[in-house]
Amino acid sequence: MPDFGFGQPRGGVIQTAFVVTDIDEAVAWWTSALRAGPFFLLPDWTGRDPVHRGAPGTAVVRIAMGFAGHMQIELIQALDDEPSVYKELLDRSGPGLHHFGVASADLDGDIARMEADGYALAFRAGVGSGEVAYMDGGPSRPAMIELIEASPGMDANFTAMWEESVGWDGRDPLRRR
């Protein structure tokens, strides 16, 4: 299968995500220190029919997504104290690396395979035209793995963000999509 339009291979890591305490400060650092960007803001995201550790999820987060080369960078800020996979990291160790995103052509099959390998389904929600599932491997693993349902819509959306990063001049670093 060919790579996604944004240059990452199918079956590989397509995203690296960090929980931050302030999206604006995080975007400023990523754009100035690392020349990544621009970033696209989702100001208050909950997902469609979110489930956190088996119960309905109610947490609200702010998300900014951009690119560093062909790798998507996701920055996530919790906006409340509701239980969430993001608040778990903040409570345990503070802001930092949260998950690696991997595109999944068979979300239910990949969840079952990872559960058989000792991962637990920590969070699942609808996004755009698909779904995501966060798999928690426990404290011995460096981060969660987010299974991102691979679809033409996901590829088109991520590719459009990546295309805006190619030759980006540094202006307008945080954009609404």
Shape: globular
What can be said about the biggest beta sheet? 11 strands, mixed
Strand numbers in spatial order across the main sheet: 4-3-8-9-10-7-1-6-5-2-11
Oligomeric grouping of the chains = single chain
| End-to-end separation | 29 Å
Structural class: alpha+beta
Order of SSEs, N→C?
A: EHEEEEEHEHEEEHE
List how many beta strands DSSP finds: 11
Characteristics of this structure?
single chain; 177 residues; alpha+beta; eleven-stranded mixed sheet; 11 strands; 25% helix
Outline the structure in words.
With 177 residues, the protein is of the alpha+beta class. The protein has helices at residues 23-33, 85-93, 107-116, 152-165, and strands at residues 13-20, 39-45, 48-52, 55-56, 61-68, 71-78, 96-104, 120-127, 130-136, 144-149, 174-176. The protein has an 11-stranded mixed sheet, sandwiched between helices. It is globular. The mean pLDDT is 96.
Strands, helices and their partners?
Elements: E1 13-20, H1 23-33, E2 39-45, E3 48-52, E4 55-56, E5 61-68, E6 71-78, H2 85-93, E7 96-104, H3 107-116, E8 120-127, E9 130-136, E10 144-149, H4 152-165, E11 174-176
Parallel strand pairs: 1-6, 2-11, 7-10
Antiparallel strand pairs: 1-7, 2-5, 3-4, 3-8, 5-6, 8-9, 9-10
